[in-house]
Amino acid sequence: MPIQIISPAPFVTAADDYDEEHEGGVRLDFDNDGDVLMDEAPRRAGGQAGGIVTPGEVVTDDPQWMRGHGTYLSPATSGQSIISSLAGTISKTNKLLSIRALKFRYIPEIGDLVVGRILEVQTKRWRVDIAAPHSATLLLSSINLPGGILRKRTSTDELQIRTFFSEGDLLVAEVQTLSNDGLASLHTRSLKYGKLRNGVFMTIDAGMVRRMKSHVLTLPTSNGGGDVDIYLGVNGYIYIAKHTTPLTESTTEGKSVSITRLEEEASEAIYSNVNEEISPETRGEIARIACVIAALAKGGVKVDEEMVELGYEAALEEFLQGVEWGGDGEAGKRVVAAALAKRRLS
């Protein structure tokens, strides 16, 4: 069946002129000073309240507003009307109007912690999928190598490049630089970055991960599961794994290991493809945490450290184990509602 796009109705400029039965158009409320107030949700067709606009819909024709991302100026009205170019919600920053997409691909920013998958091994570099419009690049010079972080890369390292990362490997890295066309360059020079193993990989929408000071969480679990590490990639890729003691906490005969020696010892562990033995209790708690994160994302709740902890507590109270409730929408809604209630009370 062909899709018919109906042109939006004329913009309503006064509250008294707005008709509850009016079909189409967007009404923007006014504040006490008579200015257009964008903080309140606009009134849409049929009297339904909501801040969602569709492509081609007029947001406002008041000249006091400036257009931002997700909008364009209408050429038919001498550049006065601001029109949405995508489906999303209206966002206001002072006099700047922009539209936040309901769903979007991850746009890299310098300093972001991301979880990625190796797509291709090239000469002196790897191509990495980070759920962005373009794949990222991880250079051979941007990883830790045996012999220390400052060791010069040689032709032998280039020949052994697949011993570090090969196609399909998962890794956690940081966005180091961005090119003019948006291509991201990653690095794993820190000992908290590198190859991922001993866990499960999952994906959610990139916009559902809240930006935090640290995106690597360690969650103590119950039922004998021990501690679990959670890597919340800003790009929406998440990895949940059995907790491993950071190499920076390693000691030799009661003395701290030097940085050079630490880099040499780290090389053997961080590039291993062999998973450690994981107990059934730990596997069960990893699955429970994965279901909690999926339920939060499906319920439209931003995923951060606080909500993961509260959601996990709610899942324990509901006696939801493993992945048995992962496909149960009602159980997920109960967990999300209980987590939100706990956050309001705290």
Summarize the model shown.
This protein is 19% helix and 26% strand. It has 346 residues and is of the alpha+beta class. It is found in: Nucleus.
Number of strands: 19
Structural class of the secondary structure composition? alpha+beta
Q: Do you know the CATH architecture of the domain at 1-102?
A: Beta Barrel
Uncertain stretches of 5 or more adjacent residues: 11-50, 248-257
CATH fourth-tier homologous superfamily of the domain at 1-102:
RNA polymerase II/Efflux pump adaptor protein, barrel-sandwich hybrid domain
* SS strand fraction: 25-35%
What is the topology, as strand order, of the major beta sheet?
A: 8-9-10-12-11
Level-1 CATH class name of the domain at 1-102: Mainly Beta
Mean pLDDT: 78
Structural features, described:
The protein has 346 residues and is α+β, with helices and mostly antiparallel strands. It has a domain at 1-102: RNA polymerase II/Efflux pump adaptor protein, barrel-sandwich hybrid domain (OB fold (Dihydrolipoamide Acetyltransferase, E2P), Beta Barrel), CATH 2.40.50. It is built from five helices and 19 strands. The protein has helices at 155-159, 259-270, 280-298, 305-317, 329-345, and strands at 52-53, 58-60, 66-67, 71-73, 82-84, 88-93, 96-101, 113-122, 125-129, 136-143, 170-178, 184-188, 194-195, 199-203, 216-220, 227-232, 237-242, 251-252, 255-256. The strands form five sheets. Strands 8-9-10-12-11 form a five-stranded mixed barrel. Helix 3 (280-298) packs across helix 4, helix 3 packs across helix 5 and helix 4 (305-317) crosses helix 5 (329-345).
